[in-house]
Design brief:
Pfam families: HD (PF01966). By secondary structure, the chain is mainly alpha-helical. Helices cover 59% and strands 0% of the residues.
Length: 214
């Protein structure tokens, strides 16, 4: 591991101490590992991929009153202190700015491969068994109901509606998680996502059977 990546790991671990469990160091570590796994199958700048994976949730807007600039400021300051080249900094910040699901309509066309890789990795960590666990953890953190048959999922929400949404945890599967498989960019990402998507469908099937005491 090169020194810059090593220092970034230590910085992120320290910065995310006490973070909500779905967006803590372990989430970052999984996205970092997934990014490296996907990067093996793509021609890319691995340093940019690793830095963006490590810094992508350094200040998630959900925990900063929706402010999407905090992560960019924190990341730039850290990378400048590490004497990182401006070219690399700009590429990393571009990824952080454009990675999220809610910003997908605003993302420019012809995304760089490094963004595609980290975005796939981040979305993969939102699905499968880990995705189920993270979703219920965050729902509990927000004190959202697990499920209410009377509350239907809100599909095709705008960015503002998505940010303000306080629906049920089960509805989040339909509003986001089940959509992610078809939004993957890379061949490897699609392959991993397909298996995890299948698990979520099985989980939902079992959930409804138990909820309805079938």
């Amino acid at each position: 591991m090169n020194k810059l990546i090593e220092n970034t790991v230590e910085f992120v671990k320290e910065k995310l101490k006490g973070a909500e469990a779905g967006h803590d160091w372990y989430h970052i570590e999984r996205v970092w590992k997934l990014s490296k796994k996907i990067a093996e199958t793509e021609s890319c700048n691995l340093e940019v991929v690793e830095l963006a994976a490590l810094l992508h949730d350094i200040a998630d807007p959900k925990f900063h009153n929706g402010d999407e600039t905090v992560a960019l400021k924190v990341s730039r300051e850290f990378l400048e202190n590490q004497q990182t080249s401006e070219n690399v900094i700009e590429k990393v910040l571009f990824i952080i700015k454009n990675i999220s699901f809610k910003n997908r309509a605003e993302a420019p066309e012809n995304l760089p491969v490094e963004l595609k890789i980290v975005q796939d990795a981040d979305r993969i960590d939102a699905i499968g068994a880990i995705g189920v666990a993270r979703t219920f953890n965050f729902g509990g953190f927000k004190n959202n109901p697990m499920y209410d048959p009377e509350i239907k999922p809100k599909l095709n929400m705008s960015k503002d509606e998505y940010k303000k949404s306080n629906g049920t945890t089960i509805n989040h599967f339909y509003e986001k998680l089940l959509l992610l498989k078809d939004l993957m960019n890379t061949r490897k990402g699609k392959e991993i996502a397909a298996e995890r998507h299948s698990f979520m469908l099985q989980f939902l099937d079992q959930f409804y059977k138990e909820w309805n005491v079938s």
